[in-house]
Design a protein that fits this description.
about 180 residues, mainly alpha, about 0% strand
Length: about 180
């Protein structure tokens, strides 16, 4: 079930300043807006109580880093296309679950890859239909063509495995060979 949302229009300078404030806090614009709304509702309750909707995420952690670690974190987060806070959450998620966590960019590559695999599947389906129409047409599907398709599918599988391995490795998780 989708949660309700609150939207508003602001001028470009306000949007830029709000984005910069969220980035400085190591959070997203959406989360910062939720925190601001929650703070406002606690200060100005609508029904005379001081209860306001709580943040849907769990506890907030705060810790200190050396300047070098903070710079390294900022650099690594930027490489992943994330804020430092989002990067740390993803890093914890990967280490605790021991499963890959893909960025939107990585997911798009996997989607394109699956699209190619779908096209290969359609080709296999057409060959199967041709073979099923008549045994006289069996020569339409030469063994070399089928071997090429099998090679392409295996290549695709190995490519996706490599992506998953590289993803896990980028998060500092090394695993023995697994079936992905």
């Amino acid at each position: 079930m989708a949660k309700p949302n609150i939207r508003t229009w602001v001028d470009g300078d306000t949007k830029t300043a709000f984005r910069a404030a969220a980035t400085k806090q190591g959070t997203s614009e959406s989360r910062l807006l939720r925190l601001l709304i929650g703070t406002f509702l606690r200060r100005y309750p609508h029904d005379g109580t001081s209860t306001a909707p709580t943040e849907t995420k769990d506890d907030r952690f705060s810790f200190r880093l050396s300047a070098k670690l903070k710079d390294d974190l900022a650099r690594r987060a930027k490489e992943q296309g994330a804020s430092p806070g989002s990067y740390l959450v993803a890093l914890c998620r990967v280490h605790l679950s021991q499963k890959p966590y893909f960025t939107e960019r990585e997911l798009e590559v996997l989607r394109q890859s699956n699209s190619e695999l779908t096209a290969i599947g359609r080709n296999i389906n057409q060959i199967t239909k041709a073979l099923n129409r008549s045994l006289d047409n069996a020569d339409m599907a030469r063994s070399t063509e089928l071997e090429q398709i099998v090679t392409l599918v295996k290549g695709h599988r190995d490519y996706v495995r490599g992506l998953i391995r590289a993803n896990l490795s980028s998060w500092g998780i090394e695993r023995e060979e697994e079936k992905y």
